[in-house]
Design a protein that fits this description.
Blueprint (H helix, E strand, L loop, with lengths): L18 H7 L1 E18 L4 E20 L13 E22 L5 E22 L19 E22 L3 E12 L8 E12 H4 L6 E15 L11 E6 L2 E5 L3 E2 L7 E14 L4 E13 L2 E5 L8 E5 L2 E17 L3 E18 L6 E2 L2 E2 L6 E4 L26 E5 L4 E11 L2 E11 L4
Parallel strand pairs: 11-15
Antiparallel strand pairs: 1-2, 2-3, 3-4, 4-5, 5-6, 6-7, 7-8, 8-12, 9-10, 12-13, 13-16, 14-15, 16-17, 17-22, 18-19, 20-21, 22-23
């Protein structure tokens, strides 16, 4: 016997159901098939020149359905029973070709040059079907729908084509220079701005291979890098399209986007700089690594609020700039090392701050945030207080008066993170002891 609650849609949640009823009467299926393929061809043209081509493809298909029995409570589902299906398919295809030249003009120099091109294609498709109640209980079929069954489809495609090159120079196993450049063309951007270029350069030197160091120094390395990267949009963000919003009074409804799209939107860009120092001492019994980095995020894509009198609520623009600075200190040591006992330990300390370094249109504030302010500042309202610190009370109610203007109460991100790892080996016994935590300032 089924308990009929209503002939309308449920507004209760699944938490109201008997657990036994949910476990044995609510049936769900998850059927996934994955096919992967890879192919690699390499031709050694000479002993210094080679040409390589690679192909990779992944087809991922997923079928899900859910059989909801009569009287099962689930928000949005009819109480007469329900049957739903989801058919998902993903396709990823990667192709690349790479030409490599390796040369050693002398005993001190090693030179490598790479040039290539690649393509990436992604496709996602979903088909969704659902009944509007069941005519015959426990007959889970779209043909058994009491009303018109619900159906929707979704398709998303994206393609990126790229060319790139990289040069490596190694001098006496002491100085290493890498210069790289890449250009992408994305299908998700307008043809006016769908091409974006990002270069990079890195340099590192083993000081211990250049000059004679004290015996306690195993090696000493200094390094630095600079890079610029860009990113595109999700598909279908540069043209407005109508959306199906169901029906009203038997007539179909379509809606126009509430935000103004920008066909000339540019890709987001990040410029990063990193420098560091690393060393190992006393035959690797003691060591450290200390990198410092800065990342500037430019052309950030924003949905900028506008007056609703325009008929829209926002417009898409390339806006704010954010600057992130931080460092990381890694200390490792082997305090105890013998034939039967060894204790290895590593301490990791890191600090990072991200600030609003540029505001769209040269404005002084963006929401609650001012120029060069930490973007992890937490804002809220508080009780108003007199200069001596006492609460200001409402003359009518006698209750404290809340300040209508938000104020900063602190940061949501910690000022310092740490992790401490210890490894003890005693004979055949291994013990691992780890600690981690963070320090957060109030303001």
């Amino acid at each position: 016997m089924w308990r009929v609650l209503s002939t309308t849609t449920n507004h209760a949640t699944a938490a109201y159901n008997n657990p036994y009823f949910s476990a044995y009467e609510l049936n769900q299926r998850y059927d996934k098939d994955v096919v992967k393929g890879q192919l690699k061809l390499k031709w050694d043209v000479t002993n210094k020149l080679s040409l390589q081509g690679r192909f990779s493809g992944v087809i991922n298909k997923l079928f899900e359905d859910r059989e909801s029995p009569k009287s099962y409570l689930n928000y949005g589902d009819p109480p007469e029973g329900d049957y739903k299906t989801w058919n998902n398919a993903r396709v990823n295809i990667d192709n690349d070709v790479l030409l490599s030249h390796h040369n050693q003009p002398g005993s001190d120099f090693v030179f490598t040059l790479n040039a290539g091109a690649s393509t990436f294609y992604h496709r996602y498709q979903q088909e969704y079907n659902a009944t509007d109640g069941l005519i015959v209980p426990e007959v889970y079929s779209l043909n058994n729908s009491a009303g018109n069954f619900i159906a929707s489809t979704y398709l998303q495609e994206r393609a990126i084509r790229s060319v790139y090159g990289m040069a490596n120079l190694d001098w006496k196993d002491a100085l290493f220079l890498t210069i790289a450049a890449r250009n992408d063309w994305s299908s998700t951007l307008s043809t006016l701005n769908n091409s974006y270029y990002y270069p990079s350069v890195s340099l590192s030197g083993l000081v211990s291979n250049m000059i004679k160091m004290p015996e306690i120094v195993d090696y000493l390395k200094v390094y630095g890098s600079w890079a610029e990267v860009s990113s595109d949009l999700n598909p279908y963000q540069i043209a407005p399209v109508y959306a199906n919003s169901g029906s009203y009074g038997g007539l179909p409804r379509i809606t126009y986007p509430s935000g103004i799209v920008n066909p000339a939107i540019e890709p987001e860009k990040s410029i990063s700089l990193e420098v560091g120092l690393a060393s190992q001492l006393l035959k690797s019994r003691l060591g450290f690594d200390f990198p410092y980095y800065q990342v500037v995020d430019e052309n950030q894509i924003l949905d900028l609020s506008i007056s609703e009198a325009s008929g829209f609520t926002s417009r898409k623009v390339n806006g704010n700039q954010y600057t992130t600075e931080g460092f990381e200190l890694i200390l490792n040591a082997v305090p105890v090392k013998s034939s039967r006992l060894q204790w290895s330990t590593q301490l990791n300390l890191s600090h990072m701050v991200k600030r609003l370094s540029g505001i769209y249109g040269g404005e002084e504030k963006y929401g609650n945030y001012s120029l060069n302010e930490r973007i992890d500042n937490f804002y809220s309202t508080a009780w108003m207080k007199a200069p001596e610190g006492s609460l200001i009370l409402n003359e009518t109610t006698g209750l404290p008066v809340r300040d209508p203007f938000p104020r900063a109460f602190g940061h949501s991100e910690p000022d310092l993170r740490f992790g401490w790892t210890n490894s003890l080996k005693f004979g055949k016994l291994d013990i691992q002891v780890d600690f981690d935590g963070m320090f957060l300032s109030k303001s």
